[in-house]
Amino acid sequence: MQERRVRHRLELEYGTREEWDDPKLEGRRLFSELFGTFLLVLAAAGGGLLHAKGQIALASAVVAPGLMVMAIILFMGAVSGAHLNPAVSMAFAMRRDFPFLRVPGYVIVQLIGATLASLFLLAVFGNVEHLGATLPGPGYANWQAFLMEVALTAGLVSVILGTASAAQNVGAVAALGVGGYIALAGLWAAPVSGVSMNPARSFGPALVSGDFSSFWVYVAGPIAGALIAVGFAYILRGRGGDPISRAAGSGVLAPDIRKQKERFEQAIERGHIRPQAPSDSDEGDR
């Protein structure tokens, strides 16, 4: 009985399979991904462009996208999961926390959002400084930038999958963890590869500026890093597919689910329900 209550509480907190399988909500999720990726690339590529022009410091340019991602997770994470990154969508799907059938739609709107942000930068600044495109730093070869992108993306996706684990929480924890990691990675590794960790972030400026010279680095590197992170997640936490992870991957939208969650939390606070942690046997089943 207590075990069922715990599982029920998790579903109320983070959504049910039926909720995020509802096709009527897909348009809202796709718009969330498009808008969120637009904002991310606006900050990341815009910061890179202004740093290249000598108008802001490198620290400002690399911290800005981290703070932007933090804000996006907080205000839109419950809508689409705030993937903002094809590598993240792929990783969630491989963990069985997100349907593979939805990955193409997410990737397409992420690329569109990145392109729209780059077109905005083109309209404001003109085609200067590669529109903030990610390129290997001076003195570094493509293979060095590739290896850096693999390692950094493996860390980023590990943080994302970790904060979407049943052993932890989502929301503010994910926002701080993911945003903080992006800023930290940029502070030390930006001179090597530009710290993309996101094929969409690199695609938009490359397409609009017309410079695809090192684009393969920022597709192959993040994808390889995401695959490594999925393997690490399996070692650390086993297979995915739990209610919290699924909600982190797809968002929580239905108003009736949120109302049920609020009522259930009030019942817990008043002592009417006292859920306990799942038993050891239940953990073994997972």
Structure write-up:
With 286 residues, the protein is an all-alpha fold. It has a single domain, classed as Glycerol uptake facilitator protein (Up-down Bundle). Helix content is 71%, strand content 0%. It is built from 13 helices and no strands. It has helices spanning 2-14, 17-20, 26-52, 58-80, 86-94, 103-125, 142-163, 172-193, 199-209, 217-237, 243-250, 255-269, 280-285. Helix 1 runs parallel beside helix 11 (243-250), helix 5 packs parallel to helix 10 and helix 7 (142-163) runs parallel beside helix 10. It is globular and about 60 Å long. The model is unreliable at 275-286 (pLDDT under 50).
Which spans of ≥5 residues are poorly predicted at pLDDT below 50? 275-286
How many domains? The number is: 1
Question: What is the CATH topology?
Answer: Glycerol uptake facilitator protein
Strand percent estimate? under 5%
The separation of the N and C termini measures 18 Å
Which architecture per CATH?
Up-down Bundle
The CATH C-level class name: Mainly Alpha
- Taking all Cα atoms into account, the compactness measure Rg is 20 Å
CATH superfamily: Glycerol uptake facilitator protein
Largest sheet: number of strands, sense, barrel closure:
none
What is the β-strand count? 0
Structural class: mainly alpha
Give the overall form. globular
Q: Average pLDDT, to the nearest integer?
A: 84
Q: What is the H-and-E element order?
A: HHHHHHHHHHHHH
Annotation field: number of helices: 13
Proportion of helical residues: over 70%
Please describe the structure with a list of short key phrases separated by commas or semicolons:
286 residues; disordered C terminus; mainly alpha; Glycerol uptake facilitator protein
